[in-house]
Amino acid sequence: MRYIFSNLKHYWRSVLLLAVLLIVQGFCEMSMPQYTQNIIDIGIQNRGIEHILPSKITADEYAEAQIFMDDAQKREWQDSYSEKSGEYVRDDLDKEELEKLDQDLMTPLVLTYQLGHMTEEEFRGMVKDQADGAGPDVRVFEAEDESGKKATYVDVRPAIRQMIEAGQLQEGQIAGMKQQIEETLSKTGEQTMKAMAIRYAADAEKAAGVDVSGLQKRYLWVSGGKMMWMALLMAAAAIAVSFVASRVGAGVGRDLRYRVFRNVVGYSSAEMEKFQTSSLITRATNDVQQVQMVTTMLLRMVMYAPVLAVWGIVKVYQSHANMSWVIALGIAVIVGIILTLVVLAMPKFKSMQKLVDRLNLVSREILTGLMVVRAFGREKTEEERFDDANRDLMRTQLFTNRVMTFMMPSMMFVMSGLGVLITWVAAHRVDAGTLQVGAMTSFITYSMVIISSFMILTAMSIMLPRAGVAAERINEVISTETSIESPAQPERAGAKKGVVRFENVGFRYPGAEMDALKGITFTAEPGKTTAVIGSTGSGKSTLVNLIPRFYDVTEGSITVDGVDIRSMDLHELRDEIGFVPQKGTLFSGTIASNIRFGRPEASDEEVRRAAGIAQADDFIEEKEEGYDSYISQGGGNVSGGQKQRLSIARAIAKNPKILVFDDSFSALDMKTDAKLREELSEQEKDAAKIIVAQRVSTILNADQILVLDEGRMAGLGTHRELLDHCEVYREIAASQLSEKELEETRHAGR
Ligand code: ADP
Ligand code: MG
Question: What domains does the chain contain, in order, with CATH numbers?
Answer without folding.
Answer: 2-33+221-479 (1.20.1560.10), 56-209 (no CATH), 523-576+656-750 (3.40.50.300), 583-655 (3.40.50.300)
